[in-house]
Design a protein that fits this description.
mainly alpha, 3 helices, about 0% strand, rod-shaped, transmembrane, transmembrane helix
Amino acid sequence: MTIGKLARNVTVGFVIGLLALGLLPFLLIYNFAELVNGVELDATPLFLLMRKWLGDGPSEAAKADAAASDDAS
């Protein structure tokens, strides 16, 4: 094995290792969300953060419309 091949293999190993370490926080967030029963079918860490920033559910007006339509049925 030449020095060039050795350097290439070590570099590829470091890149794969950095990629795995970079994805670890997202996997931990997903695992924690699953633990507290916050996972839906389309839940991703980005989706969970967006729910935190934008709010938990529909607006009050949408809730009132839904309640009115349920009462009419």
